[in-house]
Design goal:
With about 550 residues, the protein is an all-alpha fold. About 70% of the residues lie in helices and about 0% in strands. The protein is built from 23 helices and no strands. It starts with a helix and ends in a 13-residue tail after the last helix.
Length: about 550
């Protein structure tokens, strides 16, 4: 018979005695132990939180306030005192949104909108890009400005973009502002997606606040399925691959063989997918348990048949945000703007300078610079609608450049964005010449397979810049892979040495490429499992998470953005 004493004895045997100091640590910020979805601490706190939440389900402002307090605590456990920055930003944006909504003159509305954008981007720029700008200035003008000791609050880019979308949608008269500050703060601080997305649009989320909570059995099934899948992706696959192989190779690529550099690139591709999609799955699942539906953020992106298709499947909430609030704002496919032409021009000028500065060592950088400029120029010079294509491609390139810069302050992120921008322009040109190859036109299996393979390997190549700590390290990895030779005996030795890593990589890729009919059947079986069975499965997964934890909990990759 199970008694309180037997449960207590089991807990002590497996987790040890809980001291007062340990209990205090659950509620005090520790930069080394952030509150993550895949930790036992979050599970325990969430169960207590959810128990009270269930009793408050029929209230409105009390329930909203309760969730806001837990959300602020959740953010405090991730970024310490900088949760006050979230509050400050929310007060300013809420006040400006009210002014914009009540203002009758369009010219004044625009002024208030510009003030809001400057304040949001200024705050983001200081915390995220100040040191990058100092380093760039010192390199270009031989300055000696000291770097600032700046803490980067977790997820600042996400809640900044979310808050900006709210004000822009009010300015465009797509939505009405919330009735009061509590409702707005609930929207901007909602903890499941606060620190790493999905980026939620106000027009999609706010109506749900006012609806009566209606958590169906199917919602619970969907939520648990997403949470379990997300935990496995993040903790079992991503963490293990990262710590035991990928991080080691990318930290010192010259210490590893060409084959190891290549496999680390493939490893990072599945690592970042499992890490980020795993977090998104858990965020969507937890929100669903609270009665809120968040948008899907990933749709098996490595099945994409083109780079355009990839951006319809990868980080969907960000790509949608960039399209609606950046690409369209600078002209979209309608007109050219100063900003739309400025950033690509600066990039290609900088690329040319890089090529010229390295000409004494090698002509390859200069060749790459000229090749990139010529290729981008051909994407609109060969078009039948030359002017419209020129405008579209420059605006697309600007969007991807700034999207790369959003991910991080470094040349490697700018190059990552530029590569995707160039690929999108090339794909548009290809579709103009070969319209029969457009997605959904019933292409044959061989062409589809070939398209997926090419797209996947281009994305993996770009991930090298994304993962490397700097531009030079990325070039080292690429150079090492370029020296790959066919040595099956050496490859077999490496594979046997990293057997567990490669098995998990294989498991991750097989899971990703499973046909939808199989994943649907898996979901069907899970739905039919009794609730107690689901609880046991979830508990077992958390046990696996605990048992396979190495070197403490690993933060989600996108926390740094």
């Amino acid at each position: 018979m199970i008694t309180i004493d037997s449960i207590n004895n089991w807990f002590v045997q497996n987790f040890g005695e809980v001291t007062l100091e340990q209990a205090k640590s659950w509620f005090i910020y520790n930069p080394e132990e952030k509150l993550l979805f895949n930790t036992g601490l979050f599970l325990g706190l969430f169960l207590v939180f959810y128990f009270v939440y269930a009793f408050l389900r029929k209230t409105f402002y009390l329930r909203l306030t309760y969730v806001i307090l837990f959300s602020l605590f959740f953010y405090y456990k991730s970024s310490g005192i900088y949760f006050l920055l979230l509050l400050l930003s929310s007060v300013v944006d809420y006040g400006l949104s009210q002014i914009i909504y009540r203002e009758a003159k369009d010219s004044r509305k625009k002024i208030y909108l510009v003030i809001s954008v400057i304040l949001n981007l200024g705050l983001l720029g200081y915390f995220k890009y100040m040191n990058f700008m100092i380093v760039t200035f010192n390199d270009m003008f031989h300055g000696n400005y000291q770097l600032h000791d700046i803490f980067l609050p977790v997820g600042i880019s996400f809640y900044t973009f979310q808050s900006m979308s709210y004000i822009i949608e009010i300015y465009r008269e797509e939505i009405k502002p919330t009735k009061n500050y509590i409702e707005y703060l609930f929207f901007v601080s909602f903890f499941p997606q606060l620190v790493a997305g999905p980026i939620v649009r106000a027009k999609d989320f706010l109506p749900q606040i006012y609806q009566k909570l209606n958590l169906t059995k199917q919602d619970v099934n969907n939520a648990l399925f997403l949470i379990i899948g997300g935990l496995i992706k993040k903790t079992v696959i991503s963490n293990y691959i990262s710590i035991n192989f990928v991080d080691r190779v990318f930290d010192t690529p010259m210490n590893y063989t060409a084959f190891e550099n290549l496999m680390a690139s493939y490893g990072y591709a599945i690592q970042i997918y499992c890490d980020f999609s795993g977090y998104s799955d858990m965020a969507i699942g937890i929100a669903l348990l609270l009665g809120f539906k968040l948008p899907a953020n990933f749709r098996t992106p490595y099945k994409s048949t083109s780079i355009t298709d990839f951006w319809r499947r990868w980080h969907i909430s960000l790509s949608t945000w960039l399209k609606d609030f950046l690409y369209i704002s600078i002209g979209g496919n309608r007109e050219g703007t100063f900003a739309g032409f400025l950033f690509p021009s600066l990039f290609f000028f900088g690329l040319l300078l890089w090529g010229i500065s390295n000409v004494n060592e090698s002509f390859i950088p200069l060749g790459i610079a000229f090749g990139a400029i010529v290729l981008f120029s051909l994407t609109f010079l060969l078009s039948k609608k030359r002017h419209q294509t020129l405008v579209t491609n420059f605006n697309l390139f600007t969007t991807m450049l700034l999207g790369g810069l959003w991910h991080g302050a470094g040349a490697q992120f700018i190059v990552w964005g530029a590569l995707h921008g160039l690929a999108l322009a090339v794909h548009k040109m290809f579709m103009e010449f070969f319209p029969s190859k457009k997605e959904g036109n019933g292409s044959n299996f061989l062409w589809t397979f070939f398209s997926i393979v090419i797209t996947f390997h281009f994305v993996v190549f770009c991930w090298i810049f994304f993962r490397a700590r700097d531009f030079e390290t990325a070039l080292q990895v690429i150079n090492n892979i370029g020296q790959l030779t066919f040595e099956p005996e050496q490859w077999q030795t490496i594979v046997s040495g990293y057997k567990n890593v490669f098995l998990l990589m294989l498991f991750g890729y097989v899971w990703h490429f499973l046909p939808e009919v199989i994943t649907s059947k898996m979901k069907f079986v899970f739905d039919k499992t009794p609730l107690i069975g689901k609880a046991i499965i979830l508990g077992f997964v958390y046990w696996i998470v605990y048992a396979t934890a190495v070197a403490g909990s690993q933060p989600f990759i996108y926390f740094q953005f």
